[in-house]
Amino acid sequence: MRTVKKIFARWETFLVLFLVLEFVVFGAANPKFLRTNSIMNALVNYISVCIVSLFVTMVLITGGIDIQAASIIGLTSIIEGVLWSDAGFNIWLAVLCAFAAAALCGALSGFCVAYCGVQPMVMTLGGSFLFSGLALVVSGMSATPAYQGISGFPSKAEDGSFVDFRFLGKGNIAGIPSQIVIYLLLIILCVWILHRTKYGERLYLIGVNQQAAEYSGINTRATIMSTYVLSALSAAVAGTLLTSNVNSAKADLGGGYTLAIITAVVLGGTSNNGGKGSILGTVLASLIICFLRYGLPLCFGVSTQNLDLYVGVILVAVVLGREIAGRRMISGLFRKLRKKTA
Predict the structure, then answer these.
(1) Which residues are registered as beta bridge partners of 156?
(2) Which DSSP helix (H) or strand (E) runs through 256?
């Protein structure tokens, strides 16, 4: 009985129930919502947010925050496009260079936060402007006008299947879109890192008490810096997949993802004060937001212009309900304790 109570007391359990409720409501309103292809397409369209939120979770667990990842998505995309189209690089060498640039961006912000004591919010806000500006500078080096985007990446074989670079965004593996397969592999990787390695333990310890973690022999500064590098690399993965999917490299790809990423992480139960969070919670929250954005227009005719309003209202109501329920549980425990001591 206690085990059942513990399960239902977990925030992840509520997220699972909410996700199931989405499928029940949307599926009843419009059976097209339950089609496998439709569900996969919806997830593919939101996969960049899902991927980046996995690694931003690690940043928040340490007590930091990262709002520059969306800018790195665009920077990665345009670097790949310019190096391939204008500099004549092999596409995979261009991707490697873009990943290196993203890692340097993350290292710069991580170094300023960990070693220079700059507030994470301030540093990553400045980083978002800096890296967006760099993306525009790189875009200006291309012969292709910025508004058009660089296209024509290596794409199809003679049989019409997507190959080479385009396979990342448009290919299929055993009937599953390649982007979803990559996402599943990254989930497994993140769960292993956070819950099966000493590195993951260090992240939680730093988030709970950085000074105590330092006294226990953990190099807290290097560890904190590494989370920003990982977050930047995840943005590079998202930028590469997005570029491959839409067959266009632009400096502003992913420009509107910042709030969506942070929302997915916080809604998943990761504390912005550090020391608490899980990959499972982030994954569930990402899926909830993804299918809300897919289901509301399809099933209830919500305009895409007003979509953020409806999604925001629902998510605020969910979080508010969680806080109210949590306080009632706490007050109930105090009442029981008082009765026992009386």
Answers:
(1) 162
(2) none
* 126/111 Cα distance (integer angstroms): 14
Do 336 and 284 share a domain, yes or no? Answer: no
Q: Is residue 155 in a domain?
A: no
| pLDDT at residue 333 is higher than 50 | no
Q: Is residue 154 part of a domain?
A: no
Q: Which two tokens stand for residue 86?
A: 């204008």
pLDDT digits (tens, 9 = 90+) for 189-231: 999 999 899 999 999 999 999 999 999 899 999 999 999 999 9
Question: Is residue 253 domain-shared with residue 290, that is, in the same domain?
Answer: yes
Phi-psi region of 250 (alpha: psi -120 to 50; beta: other; left: phi over 0): beta
Residue 39: which of 295, 299, 340 has the closest Cα? 295
State the total domains in the chain.
2
Q: Quick one: 37 exposed, middle or buried, by C-beta within 10 A (0-12, 13-18, 19+)?
A: exposed
In DSSP terms, 249 is beta-bridged to 150
Determine the Cα–Cα distance for residues 272 and 269; give it in Å rounded to an integer.
Answer: 9
> pTM of the prediction?
0.90
